[in-house]
Amino acid sequence: MNVLKALIIASAYGVLLGSHAHAAPQTFNTALPVAEGEYIFREQGFYKSATDDPSPANREAKVVGSISVLGLGITGKLAVFGVLPVLHKELDMTTPAGKSASRNASGIGDARLFGRYTVYRGDAPGRTFRVAPFVGLELPTGDSNDKGSLGTLPATLQLGSGSWDPFFGVVATYQTLDYEIDVQASYKVNTEANGFEFGDEARFDASLQYRLWPRELTGNVPGFLYGVLEGNLLYQSRNEIGGTTVASSGGTSLFIAPGLQYVTKRWIAEAIVQLPAFQDLNGSALKDTFTVRAGFRVNF
Amino acid sequence: MAAIFLSAATAFAGGAVYLLQADGLSCPFCAYGIEKQLGRISGVESVTADIANGSVRVVMKEGTNLDRQAANKAVEAAGFTLRGFGRTGSEQ
């Protein structure tokens, strides 16, 4: 019973791990700085749909949620972040008896805490190149034992994993006044809880942002409108129940995401659509249809 | 001649103005951090970044000066590199 695997991968992992609150990518992190003593708050809402069911159960899954992120610059190189998701997960399906069934869960998901340290900074007039590793922990703040009218919800439909899951990675950013490129590689170690263990997750992300407006820069700090194109390559190994591998779990997905971002000195507004370009999921797991994300960031 | 002296006296009646060059400053959202850090320095009246030139204009309160070491520390705390530092005159 792993029908929400794709949602878990790209929603929980993609959004939460990639929720760094700064200008730059919308689906993952950046190496750009958070000034010492500066706070950045980010809120991102999203809607994710998975309807491509290879089985006769006609499963349709969706996740609606919001992700709140608070970042704090400890020094010019070190920043820490807290991430709290609020999720509504829903699964509709047809039973073998031909009846419709629906299961859902709503509430707080698993929070994340992580730190990011800039190990390399190459600054020049109007441009910068930075490399910043990060490490963090996903906390079991979401309910992992929720029950419905049909009994305990499957682990993939629970709001939380119940486990303490470390993750780490490295992000590099090259930014000029005209464009920005970010690339990130990361890995999340999922541990066991309640007899269930999600497969570990690895991902590689890339983003290009190009300044569409203003075409010519004048004085002071004008707002920038960026056209955005992002890509997310995700791999998850198979889940385990009681030490036994779940065949219909894990796999590889590639998402392409066009979007827009308007950046000012104090706030950012942004929106992006993630579309599956390639999905090689094991067994009968549901495939993603699309994900829409929109949100804002402010600094103070 | 009296008019010239009067004009000069007026020109230096305001606070000192400094122009800083900050390398790595390449997006609007980053500009806030550098303005905030420089604004915390004692005696600073106002800070204005110019992202196209990578420059930051700092106006001091009357009778105060901006120390280069303090400016460098503030720019570093914002996550950028101070390349140039100079006094350009006084606010009129």
Radius of gyration of chain B from the CA trace? 14 Å
Parts with pLDDT < 50 across at least 5 consecutive residues of chain B: 1-11
The mean pLDDT of chain A is 91
**Could you name the ranges of chain A where pLDDT drops below 50 across 5 or more consecutive residues?**
5-21
Distance between the termini of chain B: 20 Å
In CATH, the topology of chain B is named Alpha-Beta Plaits
Q: Beta-sheet strand percentage of chain A?
A: over 45%
Question: In sequence order, what are the helices and strands of chain B, one letter per element?
Answer: HEHEEHE
Q: Can you tell me the number of structural domains of chain B?
A: 1
Tell me what you see in this structure:
The complex is a heterodimer of chains A (300) and B (92). Chain A has a 12-stranded antiparallel β-barrel with strand order 1-2-3-5-7-10-11-13-14-17-18-19. Chain A starts with a helix and ends with a strand. Helices cover 4% and strands 57% of the residues of chain A. Chain A contains 1 helix and 19 strands. Chain B is an alpha+beta fold. Chain B has one domain (2-90): Alpha-Beta Plaits (2-Layer Sandwich). Chain B contains 3 helices and 4 strands, in the order H-E-H-E-E-H-E. Chain B has a 4-stranded antiparallel sheet with strand order 2-3-1-4, covered by helices on one side. In chain B, a hairpin with a 4-residue loop joins strand 2 and strand 3 (55-60). The A-B interface holds A 22-23, 32-38, 73, 75-77, 118, 121, 123-128, 175-177, 180, 217-224, 263-266, 268, 297, 299 and B 21, 23-37, 48-52, 54, 76-81, 83.
